């Protein structure tokens, strides 16, 4: 989906990506990997950092992919103790 379609069809996601450019860079990098498939359960897979966390927690990765604003939802974080611990130890992961 190009940027103009994203702004029109998914304004909340477009705003999130506008205010969090490093997430956009990450997603662009992820999408360009040759092994990328839209139907993967192991979204955000990789060998270290956030990639590794998401690969080991596909349910959380799927929920965040579907609704990125959940990363800033205190109740969502509270309901996912592994994510809470990860974010506490990696505070820059949200931004």
Précis, in short:
Helix content is 63%, strand content 0%.
Describe this structure in words.
Helices cover 63% and strands 0% of the residues. The chain is an all-alpha fold. The chain has one domain (3-94). The longest helix is centred in the first third of the chain and has 12 residues, at 21-32.
Task: Give the secondary structure arrangement, pairings included.
Blueprint: H1 3-9, H2 11-19, H3 21-32, H4 49-56, H5 58-66, H6 74-79, H7 81-89
Helix pairs in contact: 1-2, 2-3
Biggest β-sheet strands, sense, barrel: none
- Strand element count: 0
What is the straight-line distance between the termini?
22 Å
- Overall tally of domains: 1
Mean pLDDT: 74
Contiguous low-pLDDT stretches (5 residues minimum) are 34-47
Shape: globular
Helix-and-strand structural type? mainly alpha
Taken in chain order, the helices and strands follow as HHHHHHH
What is the number of helical segments per DSSP (H or I, 4+ residues)?
A: 7
Radius of gyration: 13 Å
Helix content: 55-70%
The share of residues in extended strands comes to under 5%
Features:
single chain; 95 residues; mainly alpha
């Amino acid at each position: 989906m190009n940027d103009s379609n994203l702004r029109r069809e998914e304004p909340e996601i477009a705003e999130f990506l506008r205010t969090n450019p490093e997430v956009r860079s990450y997603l662009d990098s992820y999408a360009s990997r040759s092994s990328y498939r839209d139907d993967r359960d192991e979204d955000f897979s990789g060998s270290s950092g956030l990639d590794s966390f998401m690969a080991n927690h596909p349910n959380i990765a799927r929920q965040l992919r579907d609704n990125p604003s959940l990363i800033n939802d205190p109740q969502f974080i509270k309901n996912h103790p592994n994510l809470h611990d990860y974010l506490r130890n990696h505070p820059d992961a949200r931004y």
